[in-house]
Amino acid sequence: MTTLQRFLKSRQLHTLISQEIIKPSLPTPSHLKTHNLSLVDQLVPNVNIPYIFFYKNYRHGDINILKKSLSQTLTSYYPFAGRFLATHVPQIDCNDQGVEFLEASSDSRLGDFIRRKELDETIDRLIPHSALGNNPKLVKVQLNHLSCGGVAMVVSISHKVADGYTVGKFINHWATVTRGGSPKNPTFISSKCNTKVSEFDLNGTQNLVKYAVRRFVFPNSKLNELKNKVNVSLNPTRVEILSSLIYKCAVGAATTLLGSIQPSNMYHAVNMRKKIMEKNRPEIGAGNICTIAVAKTTDSSEIKLDEVIHKLRKDIMDIKEVRDVEEVGEVFLDKVSTVGDDKRRIYGFSSVCQFPFYEVDFGWGKPEQFMLQNGVLGANVIHLMDTPSGEGIEAIVQLEAEEMSIFQNDKEILAYSQDI
Question: Which UniProt keywords apply (predicted)?
Fold first, then answer.
């Protein structure tokens, strides 16, 4: 069966039940009607990132409760229910037009998804692609009913209005309201600067390249083994040691395929909330409040884990003191310019480890599995997240297909990962 045939078959097994627009339960106050995107918001890619939650104990009849609680949550997350004023205009019209909510049924079972190593069209069919109306929605939700009685809840959010931290807070806020709780409200920081910024593509334009996306699980026990092999004075975190390993092996795969060392840069997303909001409850800062740390590697020697970790840390330490989200944006602009200032390959890393995605409980218990689908971001993108047990890290790695075939058989990847 060809890839196209498998895709068409999967679509036949997945049926759309309903779709509607969910609007905020209360109108947005007039003084909040226009939300100016920060410099960071303007610089991040204009893509929707799907966050996927699998539950086995869904209670039928909860759909109206979900919609009502989402409506109530959007009152606090009012920019999510708005629309961009125009293409390339860094403002959101907080007009309460709402978010899209779709409901679908699938002949697949929970295990068909959470045991998959490849994130292909099988996962893609769970993601909301439908559109109601002409203006693009900043948030789309799709509740997928599985044949086993479980569900896959997918929340797809524009990166222009939310980083991973904000998404985690938003979905947990919604889940808490669904259970009858009263979560803390977020603070959206509306920028004072409306400077138009040319959009940077951190991953280049590779539309004709065939990508492969695979999941890898790295147990803490294996990561500790790896930590013992680097400079003990570094005392790297799990995220640092795994990111550097994946980077090394990904560059190695490209080198093997192309026959020569590939000059490369690595960047890692850095949450900046504590630096600018420590005295003002950093946990409630919403939007994109982040920058990147960059590690450049030489093109004449083997990549060493110690050196990559050291370069990332040094780049973070070199970040000047920042007072607000605009200064974070200035740092981000400088970093983006640095990472893209030559023709080196770029590998982008983002971690949501220790973010509360496994705390998202709509009344059905905690999710059996949480996933990110990063196919929209292009090649050389790696997302890291906790395993359901918290005893390891799951990596979703997207590389060019030929490079992935080499990467997944790298002896170090095989040595420190376990089968799903």
Answer: Acyltransferase, Transferase
- The position carrying tokens 């004075």 is 233
Bridge partners, residue 158, by sequence: 48
Query: Which positions are annotated as active-site residues?
Result: 159, 361
Q: How many CB atoms lie within 10 A of CB 360?
A: 23
**Digit-coded pLDDT (tens) for 326-351:** 888 899 998 888 886 667 889 999 99
Question: Which is it for the CA torsion 236, 413, 385, 378, positive or negative?
Answer: positive
- Calculate the CA dihedral of residues 332, 334, 338, 340 and round it to 10 degrees: 60
Task: Quote the DSSP letter at residue 89.
Answer: -
pLDDT tens digit string along 296-332? Answer: 887 656 788 999 999 999 998 888 778 888 888 899 9
Quick one: 339 exposed, middle or buried, by C-beta within 10 A (0-12, 13-18, 19+)? Answer: buried
pLDDT interval class at 420 (50, 70, 90): confident
DSSP for residue 169? H
DSSP 42-55: HHS-S-EEEEEEEE
Alpha helices in 219-352, H assignment, sequence order: 220-227, 238-258, 273-277, 305-317, 325-339
Domain spanning 7-188: CATH 3.30.559.10: yes
In the chain, where are the structural domains located?
Answer: 7-188, 211-416
Domain 211-416 is in which class?
alpha beta
